[in-house]
Amino acid sequence: MTDKTPLYRPSADTQSSNDLTDRPTDIGHGGEPHQRGGPAMTTAQGIRVDDDQNTLKAGARGPALLEDFHFREKIFHFDHERIPERVVHARGYGAHGYFETTDALSDLTSAHLFQEKGRRVPAFARFSTVAGNKGSFDLARDVRGFAVKLYTEEGNWDIVGNNIPVFFIQDAMKFPDLVHSVKEAPDRAFPQAQSAHDNFWDFISLMPQAMHMVMWIMSDRAIPRSFRFMEGFGVHTFRFVNAEGKSHFVKFHWKPKQGLQSVLWPEAVKINGADPDFHRRDLWDAIQSGDYPEWELGVQVFDEDFADQFPFDILDATKLIPEEDVPVRIIGRLVLDRVVDNFFAETEQVAFCTQNIVPGVDFTNDPLLQGRNFSYLDTQTKRLGGPNFTHIPINAPKCPFHHFQQDGHMAMHNPKGRANYEPNGWAEGGPRADPDGAFQHYPEMVEGEKRKIRPELFADHYSQARQFYQSQTEVEQDHIANAITFELSKVETPGIRERLVAHLPNIDTDLAQKVADGLGLIEVPKAHNPARAPVEGLNPSDKLSILKNGPESFAGRKMGLLLSDGVDDALLDAIMEAVKDAGGMVEVVAPHIYGITTAGGKEVPADQKIDGAPAALYDAIVMLVSDDGAKQLAGMHAAKTFALDAFAFGKFIGIGDAGMDFLKMAGVDSMDDGIIPLDQPDDATGFVETCAKLRFWERMV
Ligand code: HDE
162 an active-site residue? Predict the structure, then answer.
């Protein structure tokens, strides 16, 4: 063949024409709309592009030419699209909103934000899992990050917390080891986003300080129903400092207005397959539908006297202060009301830093927090490529800022004039430090020997682990035992399993026995010797349980409606209406994605084809099917599994028309009070009210 062969040049929109003239012709200058809709395409340098389908060649079959600056620029930019993902908390999802003070606190802090009820500042929150890579699934059994950036009048304040109030380790020195152990093993690069493997439990079983946190991550806190249904905690003890310079200790709490709710582990496993984006989709959908998630900000405030008599060290991040000892005072609310315009620009580039605090707030000497104050700034420099990450809009303060920092990669704020140092004698001399209204470090007295050491009280590792376990309902205790059993069953080395189980008698002997039985151990291994005798007689705390703090209505939750052709119109309308009235959402699941036709001839589109929507995706279920529909669904494996799962996961199931026949055909042969007949439209409201109770737990014990 020679270059005399006919030319083929697909056009932008058809990809099929040989006609060299079939391409945009009506291209005006200055970016005005081009004939197919958008503005004229240019390179990043602003040069207009004539063809975006073909590289420049020496003849139709000839080599590509280096001269093709459009192609080279396009590919070069594509090659550089990724920035390093976060070493931890790589997978996350963020949204914008605002924070509003609901209770002024001028007696405790000079922070401008808290001086007056009703003060509002813009906020950005990012929720995340810790262990998995950026593309991992949402329902990993894992801690969730709960990071909030408040753009205050006095600068950015980042509260970089988690959905669990304690942490695995006490000193930042161990963080790289912890993270290496939980991430995929370095030789095989798996497992992804899971703690159920030898390295993690090997490390943890050698770190008694992690035992309190182990109780939390093995509880249902680690598999939240959505970001909207989980608490957030600042974890460390911080300080509030008032205008007179007086300091109080403070712990931060975010309490979801929606209540607490988690999924079951077997549900999590199914959800990860059916919808790996379950949590991010939930946040997006809620905000887009106007159902704005909301959290109250609460503080536990206490003084040195309390700290001195508290049986644990308030600088120890493996301990919490029970709300029964120091009640949580609600001082504000966070509302997320806007999704991002661009995930990369905002959620991926947002740079939280624990050291970002404002006047009136200060650090304590918690050795974990002190280490974090170094790590976050360092990590942002690496991820965002240089020191100017504060020039990126999502990270820039929304208050005035002036300093002499200059240049560096991608500098966007470039001061004019010649004064770039201080002191200087120029008339336009630039900013000057001024103690009035400035951040002042709390002048805490510090003395001591310079040693690598920890306080003696940090050595109590089991007391609060026990308190947490004993504060749970029976169902939740079972879930903890099952989770530890599951995880250790994935551990291949028997010695690691036994070393971990040997911690459990120090926490609770029943728990130890349940796990030993679950693993098939002949007996509970001899308990490890505690480094310090546990504190006896700590009272259980109801606030530590999810089930005791659940939602009170169906608001913000989702009903899965399994439908077939020929269903009763009035009943269907009544259910849809009742869920809507309760503030919930409905998703229609049907044999086909085009939906169903009711007995009255109305077409109802489906949101999901049954094969792609296991019952685990929903908080409660309605099965509204006709006689023929029951038979049709009973012949579909996915529909039968849907029914069996709904039952097995303890969901409330509303049954209309021939739904009961279908349930039986699917293999559900025992009936209970969680299966609720919907005989007439009036039954719908009562059913939805019952669903407020999350699950029919009696079926599950
Ligand atoms: Fe982090 N952590 N962390 N962490 N952390 C990061 O910063 C670190 C810790 C938390 O949505 C990194 O920007 C050290 C506790 C959240 O962008 C990194 C130590 C708590 C996020 C880092 C801890 C957290 C991070 C990785 C031990 C709860 C995600 C990327 C001293 C109170 C923020 C990044 C977001 C992210 C370091 C322990 C919460 C590497 C050294 C305890 C929510 O800087």
Answer: yes
Q: Is the CB of 256 under 6 A from ligand 1?
A: no
Please write the tens of the pLDDT for every residue from 115-163.
999 999 999 999 999 999 999 999 999 999 999 999 999 999 999 999 9
Residue nearest to atom 14 of ligand 1 (CA): 372
Q: List the structure tokens of 618.
A: 């929903």
The whole-angstrom separation of Cα 400 and Cα 385 is 24
Give the Å distances, CA to CA, from 150 to 147, 172, 248, 369. 10, 25, 21, 19
What do you get for the CA distance between the two ends of the chain, in Å? 76
Cα–Cα dist 516/280, whole Å: 37
Rounded to 5°, angle at Cα 106 from 102 and 111: 85
Instruction: Please work out, in degrees rounded to the nearest 5, the angle formed at the alpha carbon of residue 615 by the alpha carbons of 610 and 620.
Output: 125
Which of 70, 96, 156, 162 is catalytic? The answer is 162
| Residue 232 near ligand 1, beta carbon < 6 Å | no
In angstroms, rounded to a whole number, what is the distance separating the alpha carbons of residues 278 and 223? 12
Q: In sequence order, which residues have a C-beta less than 8 Å from that of residue 119 and are 6 or more positions away? A: 100, 101, 112, 113
Domains and CATH numbers, the chain: 1-54 (no CATH), 92-391 (2.40.180.10), 470-547 (1.20.1370.20), 554-700 (3.40.50.880)
Distance 160 CA to ligand 1 centre (A): 7
For 284-318, the DSSP string reads: HHHHHTT---EEEEEEEEE-HHHHHHSSS-TT-TT
- pTM, full prediction: 0.95
Tokens in use for 83? Answer: 């920035």
Q: At what angle do helices 474-489 and 265-274 cross, to 10 degrees?
A: 60
Strand arrangement, sheet containing 585-590: 608-609, 585-590, 558-563, 620-625, 653-657, 675-677
Report pLDDT digits (tens) over 529-569.
Answer: 999 999 999 999 999 999 999 999 999 999 999 999 999 99
The answer to whether the beta carbons of residues 463 and 535 sit under 8 Å apart is yes
Question: Is residue 217 helix, strand or coil?
Answer: helix
The answer to whether the beta carbons of residues 227 and 254 sit under 8 Å apart is no
Helix (H, G, I), strand (E, B) or coil at 181: helix
Token couple for 188: 């095989």
Token duo for residue 478: 């079972």
> Is pLDDT at 22 greater than 50 in this prediction?
no
* C-beta atoms surrounding 317 within 10 Å: 27
Cα dihedral across residues 51, 55, 57, 60: positive or negative: negative
CA of 134 to the centre of ligand 1 (A): 15
Give tens-digit pLDDT for 25-69.
443 344 444 556 789 999 999 999 999 999 999 999 999 999 999
Task: Specify the residue with its C-alpha closest to ligand 1, atom 41.
Answer: 372
Q: Are strands 596-597 and 603-604 parallel, antiparallel or unpaired?
A: antiparallel
Ligand 1 lined by 160 (C-beta under 6 Å): yes
Is 379 touching ligand 1 by the criterion CB < 6 Å? yes
**How far does the centroid of ligand 1 lie from the alpha carbon of residue 356, in Å?**
13
Q: Is 89 a catalytic residue?
A: yes
Of ligand 1's atoms, which has the minimum distance to the CA of residue 235? 32
